[in-house]
Amino acid sequence: MKKIFIILLVVCIPAVRLMAQKSSLGIFDAQTEVGNAKKGMCKYDAQSQEYIITGSGTNIWATHDEFQFLYKKMSGDFMLTTNAAFVGKGVEEHRKWGWMVRRSLDTSSPHVNAVVHGDGLTSLQFRRTAGAITEEQKSTITHADVVRLERKGNRYYMSVAKNGDLFTIDSLDLDLGNDVYVGLFVCSHNNAVAETAVFHNVRITIPAPSTLVPYRQYLGSQLEIMDVASATSKIIFQSPRSIQAPNYMPDGNHLIYNSDGLIYKFDLKTLTPSVLNTGSITGNNNDHVISFDGKMLGISSNNKEDNASKVYTLPLSGGEPKQITPTGPSYLHGWSADGKYLVFVGQRNGDYDIYKVPSTGGEEVNLTNSKGLDDGCEYSRDGKYIYFNSVRNGLMQIYRMKPDGSNVEQLTNDALNNWFAHPSPDGKWIVFISFGQDVSPSDHPFYKHVYIRLMPADGGTPKVIAYLYGGQGTMNTPCWAPDSKKIAFISNSNLLSEVYPVEKK
């Protein structure tokens, strides 16, 4: 559900031009050996979007450093995130991989790095001034698989986790100046030896400025496809506009998403979007659902008369929509397996609850009536359950119920705010997005640190499969591929790299 809306008057649809720049170094600018490290190698695999770095060097410690560095010059605030692992057993227990931020490329430069050692030690290392002794903050986590290094002003945050776990965070204050060298590194801890690490899910993100006005100003969008089993994601398309809530079409070859009040059909083979005709309804938000038989599309759109979202249906091929809900706000989230019903979140009598309505229109049936927000209602493919999220017990948590609203079960009960449970087509899993407690339980704003988590459909221990910057519009509606092997979602950044296809107006 999207609680605040801006009506966009679309005067014309600009032609879309795609640009993708081939680069042997991917999103980075250059590579180098720092200090007296022997010549190494950095390679970008455009197909897998992986980085392979081979480096030597005696150490990153004491008064000077030696290592292989794949870097980009940056300024301001940023977030650096990657999954990585060494190739093979290795020689030295203190071989290292990680993220580095340096004032210069000089061997004794002030710097900070978030590093994982060969023996598992995971730490935040830093040198405050040129030639000073390196200091260290050790994490309570060892053998981290996921590392994020974030800068906010002069404060640096290291977030680390083993695959599937939540982040553990350490931080420090350090002035490296505004302009810095940012990148991935490998050090073998023995200059006679070369070690190799492979990095994937590599992201350099520029976050929203503090002056950004929500729902009026937007960051760029990155459309990502994740292989769920490996938790490996690829950026397949970017836009400087806000694109939101990708749904897989039943053919598995196309997606549906919304942007600027319009619905787009995205071709996964050509990586190009085209406007899907929704007739006179052009205030579409990010609550849209495709029927299980692939024939119909349900949309939610602001009504020009009262600026309240209403539910409509139309053929998936496009056409003039039929209005289903006479009153609003109404936000569509699910379509029953037999195609006979829609489930939506509606504000009636001052509260947001879950309702169902015949897909051809008719009387609304109230399914929940607990105090506070109920949202994100979605049918399982077998029609046995409706999954939803609710603040009825404090934080936002995931629940499910029978299609008539009976037998409510709570599936998550943790310290995060969990939204938008999407059951996989094979019925085995749900994925959902989790916000921290820096966000009100009843809100799901843009541009936050969020997790995408995977859990058995009957409940169990959630596992993190994505660590990203996003929120509103990341995965509000059904996002699974028909084969239950992939999901589509949106991440956000003020930095879009032309190594991936970029939409140009």
Automatic annotation (TrEMBL):
Entry keywords, A to Z: Signal
Zinc is among the record's keywords: no
Domain Prolow-density lipoprotein receptor-related protein 1-like beta-propeller: 285-421
Signal sequence, renumbered to the chain: 1-20
One Pfam entry name: DUF5050
The keyword Aminoacyl-tRNA synthetase is annotated on this UniProt entry: no
Family label: Belongs to the TolB family.
Protein name: DUF5050 domain-containing protein
Species whose genome carries this gene: Panacibacter ginsenosidivorans
